[in-house]
Amino acid sequence: MAEKLYRLYCEMCSWNRYTDGTDIQDLTEYKRCVVQTGIPKIDPVTKKVTTKKPISLPKQFRCPKCGRLVTARKVVEPPPVATEEEIKDENINSGSEESNVGPEIPPVPPASP
Ligand SMILES: [Zn+2]
Q: How far is the CA of 14 from the centre of ligand 1 (A)?
């Protein structure tokens, strides 16, 4: 399995494709400009111009079927459902262990006469 997997999905014609970025030669990439964030500032101490890092937009491609722009989305793995169940089980187990010890009982205030 490739480490970086991207999904291209067209909402118009339901064209769907998975790629790791190496087999997209047949697709037409839509060139996007780099978005600059903030304005360049001069550091009063070093007298150097500091600029914030520009945002690189996700790649877009033209749908081979209908020509609509499709944004490449990163596929996140592993499946989150199984992981949540494992975490819940761990919580239940740890909770039962604590119950053996017994919950911490707050000190009882002296009874007023
Ligand atoms: Zn399409």
A: 6
